[in-house]
């Protein structure tokens, strides 16, 4: 008979007989004029094909008219001959005509069978407009089918078949089937029975161009459940290249009053893989993650989605519950169940998008979901969340089906059980979730002195209290506490990769949820104490730019952080870790200097260096090793632990020695009594030029000139990080050389013994006593050393009063200068008698006056010897006889 023409462009197998459908209920078909519809009891499908047949009218057909005209011309008695002849011959003529018609009918019936079948195969056209599930029965479903049936002769290839078919169907006008059982098989799957449809009788107009709207109810019973599940799984997993469906039926057929008995019909349709229907598209319009309700444990989810429905199907689906699964570690692993989801009863309308509301629940995450996969740093949950948060499609699996409604027939449960459908879960690119990133109580750790360069132990480390304000998606409406974090972060400056910070051990953390306010959505404030996280510098040139910006500009430097963050969370589903969540943020690094971080104030600020309690711990012929206590102000907001740090000091670009600090902790603000060791060795450091510069430097210093030294790092400043010292060496820092306060420790407050005060108490030569009769002088000397005795080996000095010479001391007699205050022995003085200076001294007998002096002095400390000059002004001198 006819075969439905589906929108998937199925290909028929030409060797089979026409396919028919079984029926259980008949519908009438009425004749209709050309280009009009023949309507059954219930409307269904439409086909506006042009009718090239003529209508049934009171006029005779042209063929019949032409035949009569020819008979009248050749046998005039038929139309106007003698009445007596007609009356005599009419019985013979009538018998001849009946015999002629009978022969024609016999010939048509004998010759037409194959041509009519071929015509019907090619011309029949059925377009379904509605397929509705009327009800579910104990053995299957009752469906309503509506559609339009028509015959289209233009689709017939052979002209002879086309003409004969049009002529035969024009005579027959209508065809009617009786109730029929249609069995559907899958030949490639062992010829399994897909199902049986009980189709009622159907009457259709079979004339070319006429459309019959048919509507009927059919009872469909499924066949082999196992076979159907195999086909479904092959289709879901993409293994179904094509599928051939074969239908068989024994159809009672008649046309008008003529009963054509039962016709055995068998036909096949082949669907190619690219023509098979696919899972419908969907769009998630609402996603709400919340704590479970109604006394249940775990987390709940409310999802609303719109499903695209392009099929002419109407069906009411009962409430359904499914299991939701995700991939395991390997594609071959068994899927991991995450939770369940349920839908209420759904009514599907033909070619109408469907809004579906789904309620899900996750009570507890299984260990296999949160356990790290072998040879990987991620768990299956990590992989799923990472794909989702980066906007990539993740895949979830729906394991069908459970029916909460007990009235759902058992065959539906048996048919759909254990069918797993992969569903793409559209990801959401969450962008930068970090709203704010700050670090407080920053503490740097220099590497240990003996750490091997290039090893993890050689990396500087950082400890800090990190505060991260994370913007939460509006869908997250459940309690979430962060108990630990770790991260692998890349650090960028001006979009170039500067370094890496690897926090590979779990750090304790706490979190506080901040509710939405104004235009700001909800967020989670996470605080974590990061302890000794190693920082690896990858670009030394870029690092030098950062240091320069921090030291010279006095402004914050913005560092971009791109990290893979792992967090330990406590949720309604339990405690577990989510690893390698992508995160980005900006960290402002405050400048190393004074001001408010806005560029105000002097770069590097005021160090206010004060040195005291000098002691000589070693000497050599060219060097002196001095140990001292140092007070200074750290202008930055960072503290530092320094196991070992060495720095050169230079004067006018010439190296004079180096200073070292060990096992020292530097805090922001004032730092007091930090022990430092300095090696003064200008000859070894700078050669003969260094020795000459050293003499000049010492001479100016003891003469209380304003002298400065330059501090500069070098490759050995941090032995484990030679590149670090080399980079910093590009930024030498010049500071005024601090005054030595004397043997007692320096203080931080306003001290009368402040070495920066220009008074006699802080000078190397504190005062003098002149004895005129004996022509000698005794000097009061304040040694800067706390435990070392210094020796003056020789002296050639001249004293002045208001620029006029008064006397000269020349002595090669060494004398000791012990720690603290002491007096020199009486040194011989050659007075410049008659000079203005000597006259002023005589006038001051019994009193005091201010003298100045210039001297060349030899100094010895241990093995080290040096010749310096000294120029002193406003020395208080007592004059005695």
UniProtKB/TrEMBL annotation:
Highest taxon listed in the record's lineage = Eukaryota
Q: Where is the Tag1-like fourth Ig-like domain?
A: 611-723
Positions of transmembrane segments: 93-113
Biased composition annotated in UniProt, kind: Acidic residues: 49-60, 748-759
What protein does this entry describe? Uncharacterized protein
Q: Where is this region: Disordered?
A: 1-69, 738-762
Which keywords accompany this UniProt record? Membrane, Transmembrane, Transmembrane helix
Tagged with keyword Transmembrane helix: yes
Give the Polar residues compositional bias ranges: 12-22
Entries under Pfam families matching the protein: LEA-2_1, LEA-2_4, LEA-2L_5, Tag1_C
Biased-composition ranges, Low complexity, are 23-37
What is the species listed in this Swiss-Prot or TrEMBL entry? Massariosphaeria phaeospora
């Amino acid at each position: 008979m006819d075969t439905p023409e589906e929108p998937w462009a199925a290909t028929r197998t030409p060797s089979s007989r026409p396919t028919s459908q079984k029926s259980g209920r008949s519908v009438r078909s009425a004749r209709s004029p050309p280009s009009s519809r023949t309507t059954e009891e219930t409307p269904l499908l439409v086909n506006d094909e042009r009718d090239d047949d003529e209508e049934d009218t009171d006029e005779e057909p042209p063929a019949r008219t032409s035949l009569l005209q020819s008979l009248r011309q050749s046998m005039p008695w038929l139309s106007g001959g003698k009445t007596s002849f007609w009356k005599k011959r009419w019985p013979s003529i009538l018998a001849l005509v009946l015999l002629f018609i009978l022969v024609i009918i016999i010939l048509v019936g004998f010759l037409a069978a194959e041509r009519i079948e071929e015509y019907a195969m090619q011309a029949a056209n059925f377009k379904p407009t509605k397929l509705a599930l009327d009800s579910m029965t104990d053995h299957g479903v009752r469906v309503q089918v509506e559609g339009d049936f028509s015959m289209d002769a233009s689709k017939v290839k052979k002209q002879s078949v086309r003409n004969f078919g049009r002529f035969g169907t024009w005579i027959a006008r209508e065809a009617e089937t009786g109730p029929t059982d249609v069995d559907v098989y899958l030949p490639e799957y062992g010829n399994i029975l897909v199902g049986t449809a009980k189709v009622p009788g159907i009457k259709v107009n079979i004339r070319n161009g006429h459309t019959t709207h048919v509507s009927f109810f059919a009872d469909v019973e499924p066949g082999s459940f196992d076979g159907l599940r195999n086909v479904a799984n092959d289709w879901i997993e993409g293994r179904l290249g094509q599928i051939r469906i074969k239908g068989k039926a024994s159809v009672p057929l008649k046309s008008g009053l003529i009963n054509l008995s039962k016709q055995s019909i068998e036909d096949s349709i082949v669907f190619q893989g690219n023509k098979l229907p696919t899972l419908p598209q969907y769009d998630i319009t609402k996603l709400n993650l919340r704590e479970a309700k109604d006394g249940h444990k775990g987390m709940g989810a409310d999802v609303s989605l719109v499903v695209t429905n392009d099929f002419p199907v109407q069906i009411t689906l009962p409430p359904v519950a499914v299991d939701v699964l995700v991939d395991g570690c390997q594609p071959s692993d068994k899927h991991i169940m995450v939770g369940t989801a349920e839908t209420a009863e759904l009514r599907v309308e033909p070619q109408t998008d469907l809004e579906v509301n789904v309620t899900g629940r996750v009570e507890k995450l299984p260990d296999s979901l949160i356990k790290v996969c072998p040879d990987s740093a991620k768990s299956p949950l990590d992989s799923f969340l990472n794909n989702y948060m980066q906007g990539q499609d993740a895949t979830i699996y729906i394991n069908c089906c459970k029916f909460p409604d007990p009235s759902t027939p058992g065959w539906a449960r048996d048919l759909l059980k254990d069918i797993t459908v992969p569903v793409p879960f559209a990801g959401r690119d969450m962008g930068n979730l970090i709203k704010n990133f700050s670090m407080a109580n920053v503490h740097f750790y220099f590497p240990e002195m003996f750490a091997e360069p290039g090893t993890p132990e050689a990396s500087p480390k950082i400890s800090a209290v990190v505060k991260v304000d994370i913007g939460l998606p509006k869908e997250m409406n459940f309690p979430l506490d962060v108990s630990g974090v770790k991260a692998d972060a890349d650090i960028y400056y001006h979009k170039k990769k500067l370094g890496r910070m690897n926090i590979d051990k779990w750090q304790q953390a706490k979190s506080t949820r901040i509710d939405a306010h104004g235009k700001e959505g909800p967020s989670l404030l996470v605080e974590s104490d990061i302890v000794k996280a190693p920082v690896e510098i990858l670009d030394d040139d870029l690092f030098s730019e950062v240091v320069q910006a921090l030291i010279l500009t006095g402004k914050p430097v913005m560092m971009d952080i791109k990290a893979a963050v792992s967090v330990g969370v406590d949720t309604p589903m339990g405690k577990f870790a989510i690893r390698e969540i992508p995160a980005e943020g900006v960290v402002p690094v405050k400048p190393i200097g004074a001001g408010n971080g806005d560029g105000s104030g002097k770069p590097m600020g005021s160090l206010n260096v004060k040195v005291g309690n000098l002691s000589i711990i070693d000497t050599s012929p060219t060097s002196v090793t001095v140990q001292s206590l140092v007070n200074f102000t750290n202008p930055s907001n960072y503290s530092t632990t320094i196991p070992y740090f060495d720095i050169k000091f230079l004067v006018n670009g010439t190296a004079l020695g180096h200073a070292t600090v060990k096992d020292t902790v530097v805090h922001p603000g004032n730092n007091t009594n930090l022990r430092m060791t300095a090696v003064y060795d200008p000859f070894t450091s700078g050669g003969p030029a260094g020795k000459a510069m050293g003499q000049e430097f010492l001479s100016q210093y003891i003469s209380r000139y304003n002298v400065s030294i330059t501090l500069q790092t070098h490759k050995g400043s941090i032995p484990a990080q030679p590149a670090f010292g080399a980079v910093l060496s590009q930024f030498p820092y010049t500071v005024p050389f601090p005054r030595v306060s004397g043997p007692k420790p320096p203080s931080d407050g306003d001290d009368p013994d402040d070495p920066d005060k220009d008074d006699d108490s802080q000078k190397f030569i504190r005062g003098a006593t002149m004895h005129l009769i004996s022509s000698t002088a005794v000097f009061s000397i304040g040694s800067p050393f706390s435990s070392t005795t210094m020796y003056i080996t020789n002296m050639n000095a001249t004293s002045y009063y208001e620029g006029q010479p008064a006397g000269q001391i020349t002595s090669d007699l060494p004398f000791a200068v012990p720690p603290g205050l002491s007096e020199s022995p009486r040194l011989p003085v050659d007075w410049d008698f008659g000079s203005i200076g000597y006259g002023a001294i005589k006038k001051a007998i019994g009193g005091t006056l201010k003298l100045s002096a210039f001297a060349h002095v030899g100094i010895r400390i241990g093995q080290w010897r040096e010749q310096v000059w000294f120029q002193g002004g406003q020395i208080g001198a007592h004059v005695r006889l």
